[in-house]
UniProtKB/TrEMBL annotation, chains A, B:
Organism ancestry: Bacteria, Bacillati, Bacillota, Bacilli, Bacillales
Domain Transcription regulator PadR N-terminal per the UniProt entry, residue ranges: 11-84
InterPro entries the record matches: Tscrpt_reg_PadR_C, Tscrpt_reg_PadR_N, WH-like_DNA-bd_sf, WH_DNA-bd_sf
Residues annotated as domain Transcription regulator PadR C-terminal: 98-179
Highest taxon listed in the record's lineage: Bacteria
Name of the protein in its database record: Transcriptional regulator
Pfam family, one: PadR
Transmembrane feature ranges: none
Length: 180, 180
DNA sequence: GGTAACATGTAAGATGTTACATGATTTT
DNA sequence: AAAATCATGTAACATCTTACATGTTACC
């Protein structure tokens, strides 16, 4: 069985929603997957094209008056199959963490203690902003369609973000105290 | 001020330890930074070379009998400065998460509930293995040199891993329950 | 005799980011 | 008049992974 990259799977998943153009996909990701998955136009457009050549999607060009043309993408049966097969596959990586704060902290004996403290303080503030974003995402999901069978799963991913971010904030506080 | 990539900063940091060759660096990272920073030989060797051409390190070739030649790298004053400047800089990204489990979960209405449960169960098991690794890393740090001024910071990074992983495990348990 | 540990490296390919390019309409 | 929104895309570059290539010694 052929394998595709993660970007492809993300696109296949999003196409099961009513999200059809590159532009819409980018927006949806920025609004609801952004906390655990990012994607740029430089990935979206070439990969959408590839979906079509691989037979995973079809495309229809729609002219709109007053607005630019839209290229609407639709999953094929094969595309849906590939998505479901991927879901059923075991995980490849658990987490692909690359944490810049921890990298800096690891070498922090080479800087004064107060500099390390402000590093952690800054990090804590960013994490608190993240918590605020989660609130905004939750509201967006609820406004969108809370009865949708998708919504339940989306809220689970949010809960993950909240719990782990909260744990990280607590770690920040504890570590700032220890450094004092 | 010129900027370098993260791999370069990681190498500069490691060269402040008594870790001098590409091989040793790889080992150290696999043993103690691995939970938040990974690196491959394909990054290490070319980047070490670049450190020298950029004037951040010098290299001495040592012949050993019975063993292959070692190329030992040493930080220059400029190298130490670049490291310290980077430590003092504000963070570029908070976290660069790309979480495959969450990506799958986000689209999990396209698979049966029991498949999603086993996805989470598998994830939970992997997280528990991670907790075990933290224990092993802690022992390694304590055996190495617990009095070292570095060790304190290393333990902080470990604590981060433990706290956030524990939170993730709790989330797994709660979410598996909810899906039932 | 085989494998693990020691040791250095390259080449190809996959993947991702950033900046640029275009252009209409709508809102401020 | 300027900026934001809608909409599509590319090219250059940065970065990372994987597989391959090479060779010795020590241990089982």
């Amino acid at each position: 069985m052929k394998t595709y990259n993660h970007t492809t799977y993300a696109l296949l998943g999003i196409l099961t929603l009513d999200c059809r153009t590159g532009y819409e996909i980018k927006q949806l990701i920025d609004q609801s997957l952004n906390h655990f998955w990012k994607i740029s136009y430089g990935q979206i457009y070439p990969n959408l094209k590839k979906l079509v050549t691989d037979g995973l999607a079809t495309v229809k060009v729609k002219s709109q008056d007053g607005k630019p043309d839209r290229k609407e993408y639709f999953l094929t049966t094969k595309g849906k199959e590939v998505l479901q097969n991927w879901l059923a596959e075991p995980l490849q990586q658990i987490t692909d963490e690359r944490n810049e704060v921890l990298l800096k902290l690891f070498f922090s004996r080479h800087q004064p203690a107060d500099q390390t403290q402000s590093l952690l303080l800054h990090y804590k503030e960013e994490l608190q902003k993240k918590i605020d974003t989660y609130k905004a995402i939750e509201e967006m999901i609820m406004n969108w369609n809370p009865q949708s069978p998708d919504a339940t799963y989306w809220l689970y991913t949010l809960d993950y973000g909240r719990r782990t971010t909260r744990a990280a904030i607590e770690w920040c506080e504890a570590t700032i105290e220890k450094i004092k």
